[in-house]
Design goal:
The protein has about 100 residues and is of the alpha+beta class. The chain is about 25% helix and about 20% strand.
């Protein structure tokens, strides 16, 4: 059986973002990453995005951040820091696959 946690799945998604003002009530697309600090450093180094804050709260099982890409789009990242919660979500995804 393929296991998402071991990287057995490879997913390619094409997402087109456009320049302009976001629609009312729209939030940023949030992408899950394994190491949010390393990803922030990569985005700054490779795409030249401005430094952005990473947030967390005790009652929320993830760290999250929002940044502006070179074309002005807001994109978010999140990283689970609670391994049990992460495993629970991964098992749910595996059942749906």
């Amino acid at each position: 059986m393929n296991d998402l946690r071991n990287g057995s799945y490879f997913l390619v998604v094409t997402l087109q973002v456009a320049k302009g003002e976001p629609g009312i009530g729209n939030g940023p697309l949030r992408l899950g990453v394994m190491d949010i600090k390393a990803e922030r450093n990569r985005l700054i180094a490779e795409l030249g995005v401005e430094w952005f804050e990473i947030y967390s709260r005790k009652e929320v099982p993830v760290r999250w951040a929002t940044f502006v890409d070179p074309w002005g789009n807001q994109i978010g990242l999140f990283e689970y820091f609670d391994e049990k919660e992460k495993d629970k979500k991964m098992q749910l995804l595996e059942k749906r696959a």
